[in-house]
Amino acid sequence: MAGSFKTRLTLWNIVILFVSMVVLATFVAVATRQQALVGIDRDLRDRVSPIMRAAEGRGEQGGFGGQNIFGGIGGGPDQGGRGRWIDRFRQPPIPEAADEETKKIVAVRRPRVFGLDGVSLLEAGVEPWDQDLLKASLRGEVGFVTVQFEGEDVRVLSAPVRRRGEIVGVVQLGSELRSIAALQRAQMGVFMVLVPATLLLASLGAWFLTRRALKPIEDLTVAARGISAANMNQRIAVEGDDEFGDLAEEFNGMVGRLHNSFEKQQALLEAQKQFTADASHELRTPLTRIKLVSSSGREENPGEVGERFGVIEGAADHMAGLVDQLLTLARTDGGKVELKAMSVTAVLAKAVALTGLGEDGRLKLELKDKRAMIEPGLLERAVVNLLSNAERHTPEGGDIRLVTEERDGLVWIEVRDSGEGIPAEHLPNLTKRFYRVDSARGTGTGGTGLGLAIVDQIARLHGGRFEITSEVGVGTVARIGVLVG
Predict the structure, then answer these.
(1) Which residue among 110, 215, 243, 294 is least enclosed by CB atoms within 10 Å?
(2) DSSP secondary structure, 307-326, as one string
(3) Can you tell me the distance from the alpha carbon of 379 to that of 478, in angstroms, rounded to the nearest whole number?
(4) 306 Cβ partners below 8 Å, 6+ apart?
(5) Residue 401 contacts residue 475 (beta carbons within 8 Å)
(6) Residue 145 sits in which domain range?
(7) Torsion of CA 208, 212, 214, 218, to 10 degrees
């Protein structure tokens, strides 16, 4: 079932209430019918008992004597039990002037008397109300059954007629069940009115109570939605000592523990960033001195000694590049940069000049003058990293292209090369710090493992993203998307 839990809970409550009301109404209808049948059965016994006693020869002592059950006179008093017993059950003929409804009622209520052979003794051609019940009464049993007569239910009593202890026939007496049908129709009418009204009131009540019961969950949801790295002070009020109160306490405790852990982590990160920045800054001066001394020694000492100075100078250059990358990471890890709208062309031109790729003609430019929201120094660093990677992994005679285009609300800066390519399994890990595709490759050709991590960080600081696709033996396309200015 679709929708919120609150809606589903309300609907389930309504469904359960509806089913309960249907079951209750069915039980009431059945119980009412059964109780009414008990009363009708008792009435049938009361109507037939005096005549049965009179037929047996005790009419003078019976309550009705010779009076028939409709107020008419039968075959006359049976003094001392003389006369035919069947006369006790005779009824006056139905008046011709009576309407059809009266005739139908009289036909139902007139006794039907049958001999031992099952043939009517009062009126020729009259059939028993129920053959099975007739057979049972011939065996001495008294029974009741409900039958259909002209579209209506009729309750029938069937009992044996005894004369001096011997069964001489069977009497079947009927009573229409119109009162029960009318009562059940009335119950159904009340049910049809009561159920919708009850369900409507129950729906409103269930919705109100459900909202009230689930209010702590809603408060918890709002509080959880408001939690972020910048806001760890969200708490919810603890009301009552039930399960929701326990949940609120646990939630507040969890947020408190997260807040403490986050503060500790932030302190450690700040200390780490500060150490990285300080160490990188302090390393720049000795590295510059080493480079100057090694460069001077290489020039002044040709031969093997000069080559050794050259190795030292190369190592100093690599260390200087690593320090520069670490300083950039320390800067970008702060998470805040000031962006301004400007053309990216000048930034790209400066990045190309820094790499020296434009001097040997290997780099082809396909630039369109696009304005974007950028921080020039950081974007320049990102493009330099991409161009340096392309140069490092594209052999002589290969093709490197720098392309700009606008798409999906971003200005894209793409570096495309025809180099060796990168295996697909490495692509998801390229922006991890110090990750290298070939871990066995030396630092002289493999870089620091920080370049693409810095590019990805810079792209995020610009509100954009960094993407890279590659195919082994075909080449690599690395692109930075920054917001249009």
Answers:
(1) 243
(2) HHHHHHHHHHHHHHHHHHHH
(3) 14
(4) 297, 298, 299, 300
(5) no
(6) 5-183
(7) 110
> E strands of 64-206, at which residues?
112-114, 143-149, 152-163, 166-176
Give the chain's domain count: 3
Of 428, 412, 430, 391, which is closest to residue 483 (Cα–Cα)?
A: 412
Structure-block tokens of residue 422: 């990168």
CB atoms within 10 A of CB 244: 19
Q: How far apart are CA 67 and CA 69, in angstroms?
A: 7
DSSP letters spanning 114-139: E-TTS-BSSSTTPPPS-HHHHHHHHT
How would you classify residue 81: left for phi > 0, otherwise alpha for psi between -120 and 50, otherwise beta? Answer: left
| Residue 397 shares a structural domain with residue 413 | yes
Closest residue by Cα to residue 462 from 338, 343, 348:
338
Query: CB neighbours of 213 closer than 8 A, spacing ≥ 6?
Result: none
Q: Is the pTM of this model over 0.90?
A: no
Q: How far apart are CA 59 and CA 74, in angstroms?
A: 12
CA distance 476 to 417: 6
pLDDT digits (tens, 9 = 90+) for 393-421: 888 888 899 999 998 889 999 999 988 88
Strands 363-366 and 371-374, sheet pairing: unpaired
* Residues 330 and 350 occupy one common structural domain: no
Answer yes or no: do 325 and 353 share one domain: no
C-alpha closest to that of 412 among 471, 356, 459: 459
Beta strand residue intervals within 385-440, DSSP E: 400-407, 410-417
My answer on whether 135 and 30 are in the same domain is yes
Amino acid identity of residue 430, one-letter, is L
The one-letter amino acid code at 131 reads: Q
CB count, 10 Å around CB of 270? 12
Token readout for 193 is 């009115």
pLDDT value of position 448:
67
- Contact 454/328 with Cβ under 8 angstroms? yes
Q: pLDDT, tens digit, for every residue of 354-393?
A: 888 877 777 888 888 888 998 888 888 889 889 888 888 8
Provide the token pair at 59. 């009419």
Assigned domain for 363 exists: yes
In Å, the largest CA–CA distance within the chain is 164
